[in-house]
Amino acid sequence: MISVKNLTKIYKIYKKTGNIFTDLFFRQYKDLVALDDVSFEIEDNELVSFIGPNGAGKTTTLKILSGILYPDRGKININGFYPFDKKKEFLRQITFVMGQKSQLFWDLPAIDTFLLNKEIYQINDNQFKKTLDNLTNILNCQNLINKPVKMLSLGERMKMEFIAALLHSPKIAFLDEPTIGLDIFSQEAIRSFIKSYQKEFKATIILTSHYLEDVKKLAKRMLIINQGKIIYDGKLTDIIKKFSQNKYITLNLDKEIDKKNLEKIALIAQYQYPKVVFQVKKDDLPEKIAIISKNIPYTDITIEDEKIEEIIKKIYKK
Ligand SMILES: Nc1ncnc2c1ncn2[C@@H]1O[C@H](COP(=O)(O)OP(=O)(O)OP(=O)(O)O)[C@@H](O)[C@H]1O
Ligand SMILES: [Mg+2]
């Protein structure tokens, strides 16, 4: 179980005064409260999504939970361990995957990183082979592990990142934006992999993402953090029903159309030729699409859910 109580993290950041003398010799710092009294509990084998706008404190939380950063205040208990003690038995139970950072050797095939991790985690030959076969099977990527990493696509590389991070069969996984930048097919592949890993290894997973789709497909429960504070902890189904009644239709217009004419179709969330974004009620979507198709010449159309950030804003206002 993961238990976090009153977690607070303050970064000291350098403040420029504009006075060269002061900046050079009497550097001034100010406090940036990245986490402010954060508390939550996560049960074994639970998958929780952790969302919030840029700079909300998600990565900071995961870094503290994995023992990379030291908190200023608060109690953390992960299966009886305090992360920053960095006990071997603790590190063997966890893993940290960062979508924005790679742990793979760039010029070498991924298998070389896997072999290094085998030594670091002292995985025996049998276990290593078994886990590697299993992971490459689920990810359908047996043919990739011997290619130099720099030759892999982003989606392929992400699969290798996951294998490297999971070879020691950790029970707890911190996944920081694991689908960032991937096309929808690779996102889907990673999602279904995360799901099957959770099931097969009875893993406890905290996942951060800016894609509502990840959250929807993977987690029943979500924590929303904003400016270092947890502002929602509950079921995802409740939140979408309650706060996201709209869909957004984005068109790339063929030719410029008077805003007044566009307004007749639906509420305009944004208009800057050639792009127009309509906000429509979910129930009205089929009807609005029919009207648009009939009346507006466009080259491209996309339909999206309300952005997580928008939902957060609404919750925040409440
Ligand atoms: N090493 C650091 N030194 C100073 N400030 C930092 C440091 N790391 C993060 N911060 C600040 O702490 C706050 C929280 O950052 P954090 O990286 O945890 O946000 P996040 O929720 O992961 O955001 P994103 O969605 O953009 O990844 C931000 O204001 C950030 O600028
Ligand atoms: Mg982050």
According to CATH, the fold-level topology of the largest domain is Rossmann fold
Shape: globular
What ligand molecules are bound, each kind once?
Answer: adenosine-5'-triphosphate, magnesium ion
CATH superfamily of the largest domain: P-loop containing nucleotide triphosphate hydrolases
Provide the structure class. Answer: alpha/beta
What is the name of the CATH architecture of the largest domain? 3-Layer(aba) Sandwich
The CATH class designation of the largest domain is Alpha Beta
The N- and C-terminal alpha carbons lie at a distance of: 31 Å
- Estimate percent helicity: 25-40%
- Low-confidence regions: none
Strand order of the largest sheet: 5-6-7-3-8-9
Summed over residues and divided by their number, the pLDDT gives a mean of 93
Counted up, domains total: 2
Estimate the strand proportion: 25-35%
Largest β sheet strand count, sense and barrel closure: 6 strands, mixed
Rg: 23 Å
Provide the succession of SSEs. Answer: EHEEHEHEHHHEHEHEEHEHEEHEH
- Strand count: 13
Number of helices: 12
